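Sanity check

After download, print the first record. It should look like this:
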Amino acid sequence: MLVLLHTSPVHVPVFDALRDAGHPGLGLRHVVAEGLLERARAAGPAAVAGEVGATVRRAVDGGARAVLCTCSTIGQAAEAAAPEAGVPVLRVDRPMAAAAVAAGPRVAVLAALESTLGPTAALIEEEAARAGRPVQVRTVLVGGAWGRFDAGDGAGYVRRVAEAADAVTGADVIVLAQASMAPAERLTTAAVPVLSSPRPGLDAAAALVRAGDWRVARRVGGE
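Expected structure tokens:
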């Protein structure tokens, strides 16, 4: 069974649909902990590392063979819990980051939350170092987008993200840092690849469940 750790309930039907389309028969269990993101935004991701680790361990106690964290802000804390948890733990944006590094050295990162920009940029730089590739990461905060998300205006949120992607220049690839941004990938008219995390993240996590091998988790990011 794969446990998905979310900080918003909007991700539950998204990942269920991706499972049904690409991995029928994969057992999923969703854990939604909205408070983790709220506290991470207020005090920084390190402030919730202990709570994230405890949540991961509870998932393992409940039968998880692997854990996928769908929140980019707390993804590093989730992965750090893996050695103690004893199962693979993957942040959903790691496969996307590896793909971005392979696409070209100039990477533009778009996020609707400022707390996501630093962790995502650091992850891309980590994947570039792992691959031995040069990288120049530029971050863009999509102004006004999160307010629309919070207000339940999903369509307006996605349109704003797509518009921001269309306005990017001087990049080889655009990264949509938050899983909730994924629908904008279909709306944007950007001339360069625009990458989102849910599908590649779930694909990689499903491979971890099938393999049942921690060493696979070390290779997912491109090692």
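If your output differs, re-run the checksum step. Summary of this record's structure: Residues 114-131 form the longest helix (18 residues).
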